[in-house]
Write a structure and sequence with these properties.
The protein has 3 helices and 45 strands. It is mainly β. It has 5 domains: 108 residues, Immunoglobulin-like (Sandwich); 112 residues, Immunoglobulin-like; 96 residues, Immunoglobulin-like, CATH 2.60.40; 109 residues, Immunoglobulin-like; 116 residues, no CATH class. A 6-stranded mixed β-sheet has the order 11-12-19-18-14-16, with no helix packed on it. The longest helix is centred in the C-terminal third of the chain and has 10 residues. The N and C termini lie far apart (127 Å).
Length: 589
């Protein structure tokens, strides 16, 4: 096409040709449509809804035609209403013509259009040229998840799942287009443009891919974004500006100093009221980050504040002694909806022990509030002493030779402290405590620097008769079992057990006649000559109650020689073949 100001003509029309005496008015209204009166040229953006009007003042009316450069009939991208050439010689009413982009036109070629007004009487002509050169049209063809494009703002979202977000921009510019950076340091290695930054086709795809790991990536990336333009190569005054904004997930790594703790799974920081305990969080996010809701007792030190990567160090103020906690939020500056919330604890280093509970009345605990308590422990089956320890980080336990400390449970309190339930019981079975034992030493130690250690001395409370919850009674150098060895069996069955030695547990035995005399402290005889109340140890050991009660003895070559109680009196007795099954086992102290 020849330029309008060059010599020559376009379809036999010469520039500056005379208009009809009433003139033709071109009204472009608002928007981006422009009209040059001298050249009678309309420049029109290729955007749906764009339009302008033409109105003639001839009283006779006009013949109107619209055609395209090179007589192109395949790329008719404009509509005219009323339709061109729809006037008749009889119709002389002035008409306003509306010319607009055809919303149904989908091709990418937009030839120059000519609209010719011919006065029906004078045959004078006015030609208006419609030029499609305009700002490039930028649309999104493809966009990675989380990224957006609206109002010429492209926001790319770098996430954990999408480390290199990408967008395909569909750019229309008749005659081709060129992407140009404004105020950027080039080359821009952190943003790749494919297939090229300059393309000759009218409808071109520009694929932009972010690579924030490149060494040239801006630090920090400006929150207001960076701009670039698409320039129409056919008319370089026509440009479309796009602002590129970036945002990303918060990527956070941690280190701890001294005895501070950080748990990413529960999003907690634990500081133990020691200014030397610190948690460092390294926060990466494009555009930088902020920390919100910081309480007065928490000190936050920042390194590289405002950079894409900022290091935050958290510790408590000096002199903090009580338990406190607060929720703090780390937030992306580029997108305030991208946040991470953490619970920060200031935890007391005090260690407290609850008052122990026990399930045996024969077990006693003394001096437990000190660091060296003593437990007098009756080690029958199922016997235990239990207590709780509240500490900053929990405790460790060390067992003794025969006493066992079991950690039953450990929970985290709302204060951030640990509460540990510990149970002390026996390691071995009851028979192991059938003889006197040495003291057992166990310990409980606070995990925070071993700041508190409680050494527990466990002493044996008497010996244990197997299967009994009651201790045996010591009578004149003999331990007497607290319960009958067997019950509810026949005389013959009892005699058989006595004979073969299975009537008593291991290390226990049936008293002989002489041992009965010794532990009772009597000279013998079958006559009920002894008042039981005068023999309190014997009474406590046998507890015969009312009526007549007999206890077996070893055979001594006799038939069940034993001990007889009748209504508060007692003596030794030859039991004979009576159906007697009472038997208390003994052992020497």
């Amino acid at each position: 096409m020849e330029d309008w100001t060059d010599e020559g003509n376009i379809d036999d029309y010469e520039p500056g040709g005379e208009a009809d005496e009433n003139g033709v008015t071109v009204n472009v209204g608002g928007g981006d449509v422009t009209y040059d009166v001298a050249t009678r040229m309309v420049t029109m953006p290729i955007v749906d809804g764009t339009q302008f009007t033409m109105e003639g003042g001839s009283t006779a009316g006009y013949y109107v035609t619209m055609y395209y450069e090179g007589n192109d009939t395949e790329h008719q991208w404009l509509t005219i209403d009323p339709l061109a050439d729809n006037m008749t010689k009889a119709d002389v009413t002035p008409v306003i013509y509306t010319i607009k982009k055809d919303a149904t036109y989908t091709d990418t070629k937009y030839p120059i259009a000519f609209i010719r007004f011919t006065d029906k009487i004078s045959a004078k002509e006015t030609i208006v040229i419609v030029q499609p050169f305009a700002k490039p049209t930028v649309l999104v063809n493809n966009l990675s998840n989380g990224s957006t494009y609206a109002d010429n703002v492209l926001s790319l979202y770098q996430s954990t799942a999408i480390s290199q977000p990408t967008v395909t921009l569909n750019v229309f510019a008749s005659g081709g287009s060129r992407l140009e950076f404004i105020g950027w340091t080039t080359p821009v290695n952190w943003l790749t443009i494919a297939p090229a930054v300059e393309q000759n086709i009218s409808l071109a795809n520009y694929i932009l891919t972010l690579n924030s790991s490149d060494a040239s990536f801006p630090d920090p990336y400006p929150l207001e974004g960076k701009t670039f333009t698409f320039t129409n190569k056919a008319n370089e005054e026509m440009k479309e500006t796009v602002t590129l904004k970036l945002k990303s997930d918060l990527t956070i790594t941690s280190t701890t100093v001294a005895q501070a703790e950080f748990d990413n799974s529960s999003s907690t920081l634990k500081l133990f009221n020691n200014e030397n305990d610190k948690v460092k969080l390294t926060v990466n996010t494009i555009g930088g980050s902020d920390v919100l809701n910081v309480p007065s007792w928490l000190i936050v030190t920042k390194e590289d504040e405002g950079k894409n990567q900022t290091i935050y160090t958290f510790n408590v103020a000096s002199g903090t002694t009580t338990n406190m906690n607060a929720d703090i939020t780390i937030r992306s500056k580029a997108d305030n909806t991208i946040i991470k919330t953490y619970k920060v604890y200031a935890i007391s280093r005090d260690v407290t022990f609850s008052t122990p509970t026990k399930n045996s009345d024969y077990t006693t605990v003394s001096n437990f509030t000190s660091t060296t308590p003593t437990i007098s422990y009756f080690a029958c089956e199922g016997s235990y002493v239990e207590f709780k320890v509240t500490s900053p980080k929990g405790v460790t336990v060390v067992n003794g030779s025969w006493c066992n400390l079991d950690v039953m449970s450990e929970t985290t309190l709302s204060t951030g402290q640990k509460q540990t339930t510990i149970r002390m019981n026996r390691i071995n079975n009851d028979n192991w405590h059938g003889t006197p034992t040495n003291d057992c030493n166990a310990s409980v130690t606070d995990k925070y620097s071993g700041s508190l250690k409680k050494n527990i001395t466990v002493k044996q409370y008497q010996i244990v008769y197997p299967g009994s919850k009651v201790p045996p009674t010591l009578v004149k150098g003999y331990w007497v079992a607290p319960v009958n060895s067997v019950s509810s069996i026949s005389y013959n069955d009892m005699r058989s057990r006595v004979t073969n030695g299975t009537a008593c547990p291991s290390n226990w035995r049936i008293p002989t006649h002489s041992e009965y005399l010794s532990l009772a402290g009597i000279s013998g005889g079958n006559t009920l000559a002894y008042d039981l109340n005068s023999y309190p140890e014997l009474k406590a050991a046998y507890r015969p109650g009312s009526g007549e009660v007999h206890y077996w003895a070893s055979n001594d070559d006799r038939i069940g020689y034993g001990l007889r109680f009748v209504n508060g009196k007692f003596s030794t007795w030859t039991l004979g073949d009576k159906n007697i099954s009472n038997l208390r086992c003994i052992k020497n102290k």
